[in-house]
Amino acid sequence: NKHVNVIAHPLNKIGEKTFKKHLDEVIEMAKRYGKALEISLVPDRIQESDFLVENLKDSGVKFSFGTDSHSVKQLELMSISNLWLNELNEDLIANFYEDPIEFLEG
């Protein structure tokens, strides 16, 4: 879908076991279609995000940090991204670009 740039909650419905089983396909499809995967910074999803980083950090897949914010206060969750900044290539993180949409579509 050309209107989708980031796939949010990529493990939400399928779980870690199924995701890992299809990991090569996920990487190939994300790269082929230029889709980023969300690293959720919601405390309830830290384990899921840790799994994503561990399995995709060297894959060349683009990422986007997301907070699922429903209020300004929840934007403070962005600080949780510090858990993974040393493990990821900052050139592949949409949040670090002045125009993240251009980066994702480019």
Describe this structure in words.
The chain has 4 helices and 3 strands. The chain is α/β, with parallel strands linked by helices and 106 residues long. The protein is globular.
Offer a few descriptive terms.
globular, alpha/beta, 3-stranded parallel β-sheet, 10% strand, 106 residues
Lay out the secondary structure.
Blueprint (H helix, E strand, L loop, with lengths): L5 E2 L7 H7 L1 H11 L2 E5 L5 H11 L6 E4 L33 H6 L1
Parallel strand pairs: 1-2, 2-3
Number of helices: 4
The secondary-structure class comes to alpha/beta
**Helicity range of the residues?**
25-40%
Topology as a string of helices (H) and strands (E): EHHEHEH
- Our Rg estimate from Cα atoms comes to 13 Å
Task: Tell me about the largest β-sheet.
Answer: 3 strands, parallel
Q: State the low-pLDDT regions, or none.
A: none
Q: What is shown here, in short?
A:
The chain is α/β, with parallel strands linked by helices and 106 residues long. It has helices spanning 15-21, 23-33, 46-56, 100-105, and strands at 6-7, 36-40, 63-66.
